[in-house]
Amino acid sequence: MPDTKIVINAPAKINLFLDVLDRDKKSYHSILTVFQAISLFDTITITVQRSRVNRIVVNNRELQNRRNIVEDVLDIFKERYNINRKFTVKIEKRIPLGAGLAGGSSDAAAVICGINNILKLKLSGRELTNIAKEIGKDVPFFFHGSTQIGQGYGDRLKKIRTSLDYYILLIYPGFEISTKEGYRSLSARSFNKGNKEFKNMLRAFRSNDLFSMADSMYNVFEKNTFKKYPLLQDIKEDMIAGGAENALMSGSGSTVFGITRDKKNAQNINKKLKQKYKSAILLKPLNDGLLIM
Questions:
Q1: Nearest to 102 by CA among 62, 75, 141, 61
Q2: Does CATH place domain 161-283 in 3.30.70.890?
Q3: What pLDDT digit, counting tens, does each position of 246-293 carry?
Q4: Annotation says 5 is catalytic
C-alpha cells in the first residue's frame, strides 16, 4: 500500500478572559474563560506507512526528550478502535512551549482529526470530543476554534457569535511557565473575582464593541505571575503605551498579547515592539476550527 499523507495547520489560542472559580478536594480547578483561536500555527504532517512502530518527528529539541502528547492520541486510537496501522507524525513547531497558547493541545486535536480523516473512520463529533477530553481539557476547543466560552475544567464549551475584527500583537518572552506553577500561586481569596468583567465582555461581543471588549479583558494569574516575572508586566505596559487598546497575559503565561482595531496602527505598534522584543508578531483571530479547515 502506498503511503497516505495529510497536512494540517494546528492553531494557537489566547484567553481573552480567565478566572478560577473554585478548587475541589483533588486540587482540580474549575475555570471560566473565553478562548480565542489565532493565526499562529504548528504544521502537522501525518503519514500512514508500513512500519512496526509509530514515529514522532519534531523540529523542537526540547520536545525530543519528552513524551509527546501526540503519542497519547495514537495509543487511544489503537486501544479503542483496534487501529494497527503505524504513523509518522511530523510536527513543525511555531507555537512556543509553556506559553499559555495551548500548542500541545492543538497538535493533539489536529492528530485526532487527521487520523479520523486519513483512515476514513467517520467518527462522530461526540466520539472525537471524548478522545480529546482524555488527552487534555482544552483539546476539544480546537475542533471548532473561533471564540468560545470554556467552563468547568475548560471542556464545557459554548460558541460566542460575534463579528468583531481586530489585530493581535503577540510577544513570547523566551521562557516557559508551567501551568502547575501558575495554579499553585493562587489562593482561594483570588477566586471568582472577574464576574463583572465577564458580563461586560459578553455584552461587548453582542454589540460588537471592541473597546469595551478590550477593557473587559481579565486574567486571574497576572498579579502573582507579574510579581515573579516583572518582564511580563513591562511587555504589557509597552503594548498599551504603544497604542494597543489593552493587553493581557494568556493562560497561566508566559505570552502577552495586545489587541487593536486598525491595521496600520497594529503594524506601527508591532514595528516599535520588535525593536525591543524580537519575538513580536502580528496575528489575527480565527473564525473556524480544525473540523472546518
A1: 141
A2: yes
A3: 999 999 999 999 999 999 999 999 999 999 999 999 999 999 999 865
A4: no
Q: Which entry of 42, 107, 138, 238 is annotated as an active-site residue?
A: 138
Q: Report how far apart the first and last C-alpha atoms of the chain are (Å, whole number).
A: 27
- 3-state secondary structure at position 160: coil
**Is 122 buried (19+), middle (13-18) or exposed (0-12) by CB count in 10 A?**
exposed
Q: What fold characterizes domain 4-158?
A: Ribosomal Protein S5; domain 2 (3.30.230)
User: Taking the alpha carbons of 78, 82, 86, 88 in that order, is the dihedral positive or negative?
Assistant: negative
Whole-number pLDDT of residue 1: 46
CB proximity list for 265: less than 8 A, separation 6 or greater: 243
Evaluate whether 256 touches 151 at the Cβ level (below 8 Å).
Answer: no
CA 202 to chain centre: 20
Catalytic residue among 13, 19, 107, 236: 13
Q: Is 138 a catalytic residue?
A: yes
pLDDT in tens, 15-46: 999 999 988 766 778 999 999 999 999 999 99
Map out the domains of the chain as residue ranges.
4-158, 161-283
The span from the CA of 59 to the CA of 57, in Å, is 7
Give residue 126's pLDDT band: very low, low, confident or very high (50, 70, 90). Answer: very high
**Which cell numbers hold the place of 273?**
515592539
